[in-house]
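The record is passed on directly below:
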Amino acid sequence: MTEAVRILYVDDEPDIRMIVEFALEDEEGLELVLCASGAEALARVADYQPHLVLLDVMMPTMDGPTTLQQMKQMPELANTLFAFMTAKVQPQEVAQLKALGAVSVIAKPFDPMTLVDTVWQILKGESR
């Protein structure tokens, strides 16, 4: 059996975390860890070694871009993919997020029924 793809999802909204968990938890081959803040994500990410980190952009205390910048400093995450999930999807906003190192930006509200397909596309390099 192959190793599960590890995903770390970071969002301060409990309802959104629950929807993402519902959308991804039963997908064979994926393992999901949820974090409620950038600080929590930073505390857990090195040990978890995710293949993909999905970040909310707007969070109190430490926003998604700041969390991403701090994670990019960690050598153990050199091969980790990063994507944002946000309502801020104007072309210039998407360009700014990708300039920070995100490989993809998923628009909120997202369709929970297609989220798993979107995640697999990101992991395969098809959703850039």
